[in-house]
Amino acid sequence: MHLIPNNSRTILVVEDEPMVLKMVTTMLERLGYVVLAANTPAEAIYLVKKSDHHIDLVLTDVIMPDINGRRLAEVLIAIKPEMKFIFMSGYTANIMVDQDFLDKGMCFIQKPFTKKELVEKIQESLG
Q1: How does DSSP assign 54-107, residue by residue?
Q2: In CATH, what number is assigned to the domain containing residue 71?
Q3: What are the pLDDT digits (tens) for 49-84?
Q4: CB burial class (10 A; 0-12, 13-18, 19+) of residue 110?
Q5: How many CA atoms lie within 13 A of 85 on its CB side?
Q6: Do the domain assignments include residue 3?
Q7: What is the distance between the alpha carbons of residues 82 and 61, in angstroms, rounded to a whole number?
Q8: Model's pTM, two decimal places?
Q9: Is residue 1 over pLDDT 80?
């Protein structure tokens, strides 16, 4: 499997846990992606509205203060409908669906994840 992506891809990472945000950001940068990092949904919304980068993908935590990842996706899609999303959580996908945080079929990755698993999800999401 070829792990080096197209360098023109930009990913916005939204994660309220600073250590996880740093780890995921570093992982993506080492893979060659342009990464924007936000530690709150409000910061993510600001970045999407103000960034000069075309944001291809948003990798967002599901459970966050203020608004959850699903609601954040709804807000961001209203601003830039072409963005793709991967939702991440320490909980399983089944729990996220059962608790109405996600719909079946949404692109989901369970934390902790490996670099290989992340690359596979990104490729699945971006096509």
Answers
A1: ---EEEEESS-SSS-HHHHHHHHHHH-TT-EEEEEESS-HHHHHHTTSS-TTS-
A2: 3.40.50.2300
A3: 998 889 999 999 998 988 999 999 999 999 999 999
A4: middle
A5: 22
A6: no
A7: 19
A8: 0.89
A9: no
